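[step 3/7] fold_predict: job queued, chain A
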Amino acid sequence: MRGYSEYSLQELQQACADIDRESFPEKYQEICDELERRQAQSSQPIEQELDSTYEKPIQKKPFVSIPNDQVIELNQWFKRVTSVLTIGGAFLGITHMLSTLPNISGLFTYAIYAFFVVIYVLGIMAAVRLFEKSTVGVIKDNLIFWAIQIPLFMSPFIGYQLTNGAFLNIFVSSQTGLNVVPMLGSIFQFSIFQFQQPWAIGINPVAILVSAYFYRVLKAADKRYSQ
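[step 4/7] structure written:
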């Protein structure tokens, strides 16, 4: 049986609170003596010692613990179709931007175009790498690219939409009500303080399904890796 000198400070304080002082006066005194000895040895009060002893830094749990270079088997047809849609849609989006470039003006508009060009290029790179080898890192990149295509939001103050490859936008507009728009290609929009812009909010179910598949594959592989 452990002596009180082997107890942690928290265990000593708990024992002091729980013990029947009248039935076990000697043990109670031993606990008090040990607590006094601990306090005398410390340069700080017992409460501060307890906090510093048991305070642990909060560590953020990673999305998946499996290494990024670990290869995960994907459905071959799914990989082919999503990669082709991503690459084709991104090239169409870049081509459209280049064709309309002479008609735009303003530093902000150029910055928006540059931002979406970077997004399209990153999407193409992710799709090409997925063709070559479906590692955890590559699947994460493709998951992010498809996940940012899920929301659609427009308002007179700020608006955002990015759909690429194949999409089925379902949204509600303050002008036209419920809308369902299936399409192959690419659409990008980002606006700030466009007061003529109607309110609209919606989702892209195709992007949800693709993102969900990538997410499920990553989580399943991570579970097998942890076992």
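[step 5/7] annotate
The first strand starts at residue 151 and ends at 154.
The radius of gyration is 30 Å.
exit 0
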